[in-house]
Amino acid sequence: MAKVGIVMGSDSDMPVMAQAADVLKELGIEFEMTIISAHREPDIFFEYAKGAEGRGLKVIIAGAGKAAHLPGMCAALFPMPVIGIPMKTSDLGGVDSLYSIVQMPSGIPVATVAINGGKNAGLLAAKILATSDEEILGRLKEYSEKMKDEVVKKAERLAEVGYEEYMKK
After folding, report:
1. Is 90 annotated as a binding residue?
2. With bands split at pLDDT 50, 70 and 90, how would you rate the model's confidence at 157?
3. 4 neighbors 125 (Cβ within 8 angstroms)
4. Is 40 marked within a binding site?
5. What does this gene product do (predicted)?
6. Residue 54 pLDDT grade (very low, low, confident, very high; cuts 50, 70, 90)
7. What is the DSSP letter of 133?
8. 157 known ligand binder
9. 68 — pLDDT class (breaks 50, 70, 90)
10. Which residues make Cβ contacts (< 8 Å) with residue 157, sequence separation at least 6?
């Protein structure tokens, strides 16, 4: 059963939302993914958000651009954590989306990651789930160790070949 819902307002958001999905997949966390416009199909959106708990979801990752209502509306209807991903837009570079998501009214929190921060949204969802799941916690620790090892290898290579050769890769 899916533990994380990934929802986006448009298929143009897919490259960023896929980053969240990729992280969850790597960590062995089941998820569902869909496209729903809170503005263009509110009836379908309400059905999705109100039914999420019954489908076993523990966290929703919602990405949206411009007015960015999707994360906040999910938080208004879904009783568990919602993570908002503000999408970079051509109009204002995503700042409009960021402000929309972080300026939620008192009582309707949305955890918010960086503009186009799909990977961090996936990791944050995993960390939320890890508070009550030792297996996910173990996989997160392994993931962190792998990231550390990658940085160490890069530093070793830089020391070995110098910055000019390193930049040629």
Report:
1. no
2. very high
3. yes
4. yes
5. Catalyzes the conversion of N5-carboxyaminoimidazole ribonucleotide (N5-CAIR) to 4-carboxy-5-aminoimidazole ribonucleotide (CAIR).
6. very high
7. -
8. no
9. confident
10. 166
- The CA distance from 110 to 104, in Å, is 7
Element counts in the chain: helices (H) and strands (E): 6, 5
Q: How far is CA 122 from each of CA 15, 56, 157, rounded to the nearest angstrom?
A: 13, 17, 29
Amino acid identity, position 126: A
Query: Which regions of 18-147 does DSSP assign to beta strands (E)?
Result: 31-35, 59-64, 82-86, 111-112
What is the rounded CA–CA span in Å between residue 31 and residue 125?
11
Which residue, among 63, 55, 65, has the nearest Cα to 31 in the 3D structure? 55
C-beta separation of 83 from 112 below 8 A: yes
Identify residue 21 by its one-letter amino acid code: A
Residue 114 identity (one-letter amino acid): A
